[in-house]
Amino acid sequence: GQQVMQIPQYQHVQEGEDFTTYCNSSTTLSNIQWYKQRPGGHPVFLIQLVKSGEVKKQKRLTFQFGEAKKNSSLHITATQTTDVGTYFCAGDRGGYQKVTFGTGTKLQVIP
Amino acid sequence: NAGVTQTPKFQVLKTGQSMTLQCAQDMNHEYMSWYRQDPGMGLRLIHYSVGAGITDQGEVPNGYNVSRSTTEDFPLRLLSAAPSQTSVYFCASSYLKGTESYEQYFGPGTRLTVT
């Protein structure tokens, strides 16, 4: 079945440093979604990427979708303590197939 | 607009008991799904539905049943609870654009403990 892996599993950064998490799917995706989950909370949608090679920005967050539509990344510039949480990617193969979540990357920001 | 609601928020069951976790959404979303999240782990898909009357299995369906008689409701039934089912359960819903899902809205979760 489809597998979606994320690396790293954990990341500790000093406030102000950059952070990147990578997402890799074993199959080609129709779209990829990114979510953030704060400790004790529920996942909250951040963005969706659909096109091959697509890059989208949200303030300090930059999202990329690979050319082959099998991998993606999320980059945060100059982290802040409000960025703490677990970041998940989720891959949709389309065709009414299930959406598969990645394993997540837990980000800790040290003030 | 309440979004996605889940009840109960917390539940303690004894091994062998059955119960139903309720999930409802008021956004007319076609796609609904149930996930479980164990400590330090990601979200694992239990069951999902692309519309009323249509359900399918996810990665970890054993021990759980679902039905989708209306667009709004997607209850999850635990048939005979086991300690391995201790987890946080999230329900989510989204629009479908053609055959693809769009952003998923998650409920607040149900924290289930089986003793």
Q: Mind explaining what this structure looks like?
A:
The complex is a heterodimer of chains A (111) and B (115). Chain A is mostly beta strands and 111 residues long. Chain A contains no helices and eleven strands. The radius of gyration of chain A is 13 Å and the shape is globular. In chain A, the strands form two sheets. In chain A, strands 2, 4, 5, 9, 10 and 11 form a six-stranded mixed beta sheet that branches. Chain A has a five-stranded antiparallel beta sheet with strand order 1-3-8-7-6, with no helix packed on it. Chain B is mainly β. Chain B is built from no helices and 13 strands. In chain B, the strands form three sheets. In chain B, strands 2, 4, 5, 6, 9, 12 and 13 form a seven-stranded mixed beta sheet that branches. Chain B is globular, with a radius of gyration of 13 Å. At the A-B interface, strand 4, strand 5, strand 9 and strand 10 of A face strand 5, strand 11 and strand 12 of B.
Quick structural overview:
The complex is a heterodimer of chains A (111) and B (115). By secondary structure, chain A is mostly beta strands.
Name the descriptors:
heterodimer, A: 111 residues, mainly beta, 5-stranded antiparallel beta sheet, 0% helix, B: 115 residues, 7-stranded mixed beta sheet, 4-stranded antiparallel beta sheet
Q: What is the overall number of helices of chain B? A: 0
Indicate the multimeric state: heterodimer
> What order do the helices and strands of chain A follow?
EEEEEEEEEEE
**What is the CA-atom radius of gyration of chain B, in angstroms?**
13 Å
**Structural class, from secondary structure content of chain A?**
mainly beta
Helix segment count of chain A? Answer: 0
Radius of gyration of chain A: 13 Å
Q: Total number of β-strand segments of chain A?
A: 11
- Quote the average pLDDT of chain A: 94
**Largest beta-sheet characterization of chain A:** 6 strands, mixed
- What is the mean predicted local confidence, pLDDT of chain B? 93
Strand content of chain B: over 45%
The stretches of 5 or more residues of chain B where confidence is low (pLDDT under 50) are: none
